[in-house]
Amino acid sequence: MGWYPCPAPVGYLNTPDRSKGMKIIKKDKKRFDQLRKLFEMVMRKECNAVEAARIAKDEMSFRMKNGKPMARSTFYRLLTDPFYCGIFEYPKGSGNWHEGKLPAMITEEEHHQILAVLGRKGIARPRRHRFAYTGMMFCGECGCGITAEDKEKHQKNGNVHYYTYYHCTKKRGVCNQPCIEVKELERQIAEEIEKIEIPADFHSWAMTWLKHEHKKETGERNDVMSNHQGAYNASVRKLDALIDMRASGEISEEEYRNKKFKEVREKKRLHALINDTDARTDDWIGKAEEMLDFARDASTQYRDEESLREKKKILLKLGSNLILKDKKLSIDTANALLPLKKASPEVKRIHKRLEPLKDEEKQKALEDSYSKNPILLRGRDSNLRPTR
Ligand SMILES: [Zn+2]
Fold first, then answer.
1. How far is the CA of 336 from the centre of ligand 1 (A)?
2. Pick from 227, 284, 292, 372: most CB atoms within 10 A?
3. CA of 81 to the centre of ligand 1 (A)
4. How far apart are CA 355 and CA 279, in angstroms?
5. If one looks up domain 12-129 in CATH, what number appears?
6. How far is the CA of 329 from the centre of ligand 1 (A)?
7. Average pLDDT, stretch 208-231?
């Protein structure tokens, strides 16, 4: 799910279209910013929750949607609600936690800090919602699955830091592999995504070329198709004529059988040809475009993405056979992305070289360089298109 299925909590607004499950799409800007400030004050121990509630009422003129000041108990409830760090339980008390799709007010770490300040323990929720990459990586030493866990570090000043580590489950006995912090793991994943990244200029150049090729091929295929269809119709007419000839006694029974046998075989062959040509009119250009889009956008998307589920999706699309060994992640890049992995460093090199040029000049020079580069040419000839 991901959409909060209840009226929007303080600081958020429901969309006007309440019929579609009361979706929340936006912040309630003023209340959101004020609440964030109040949360920070409590978190940094600038004041306690009671004092913060008073400041909200008297100094910030914070009002609820009904125009009344926020009750102390309400503020306390908001402070401890994990919803504000982007997760919620639905139905309440069910133990099913969901990741919200809306902008969180605070990070999960800040949420835990507030709970620590208030002397409350973090609310447990199932792991599957917390760890994006469990169940998809394997240990390079013993072959077991890679799992994750949270660890706390208490500082002398009372602050608590939370870290997520990934490590081998070591279910098959001795394994000497160390654990890796999620930040380092994500840094490596981002690095892998960068290896296939292409600039927007190259994307549009490649698409123009592919569309041109596709049009040419479609034209050729239509010609071939109409030839096959013509031959097939002729074959059907010949069979009809044979029957007439036999009926009027022009040919003997034996002659008829021989000729019919040959013609039926020919008709079948043509029928198969037509089907085959038809099957090849698949949408290869659509698939190529999907990969080019991914290569252009994935890097930024992965960096900006907050949803664990979306991050996982990007990694799944990038490749398979994820092995973790000595704190190093290796990935087999997806076949469909291999040509882009070859093209990416070339394109980046060209862009770096032409960087000093002015816009109009640069555009022309870029396209010129693309179309003369043997690696990019090989890529577009053999890989982004299916083999014929
Ligand atoms: Zn292991």
1. 30
2. 292
3. 38
4. 44
5. 3.90.1750.20
6. 13
7. 87
pLDDT over threshold 50, residue 388: no
Give the span between the Cα atoms of 309 and 133, in whole angstroms: 9
On the question of pLDDT at 95 being above 70, the answer is: no
How many Cβ atoms from other residues are within 10 Å of residue 83's Cβ?
Answer: 21
Reported as type and span, the H/E element at residue 163 is strand 160-168
State phi, psi for 65 to the nearest 5 degrees: -65, -25
Rounded distance from Cα 172 to ligand 1 centre (Å): 8
241: how many CB neighbours lie within 10 A of its CB?
13
Q: What's phi and psi for 198, nearest 5 deg?
A: -130, 145
Q: How far is the CA of 29 from the centre of ligand 1 (A)?
A: 48
Comparing C-alpha atoms, which of 149, 151, 145 is closest to residue 169?
145
Please state the three-class secondary structure of 232-295 as a single string.
HHHHHHHHHHHHHHHHCCCCCHHHHHHHHHHHHHHHHHHHHHHHHHHHCCCCHHHHHHHHHHHH
What's the confidence (pLDDT) of residue 108?
82
189 C-alpha vs ligand 1 centroid, how far in Å?
A: 20
Its sign, for the CA torsion 25, 31, 34, 37, is negative
Compute, in angstroms, the gap from residue 50 CA to the centroid of ligand 1.
50
Contact (Cβ atoms closer than 8 angstroms) between residue 49 and residue 118? yes
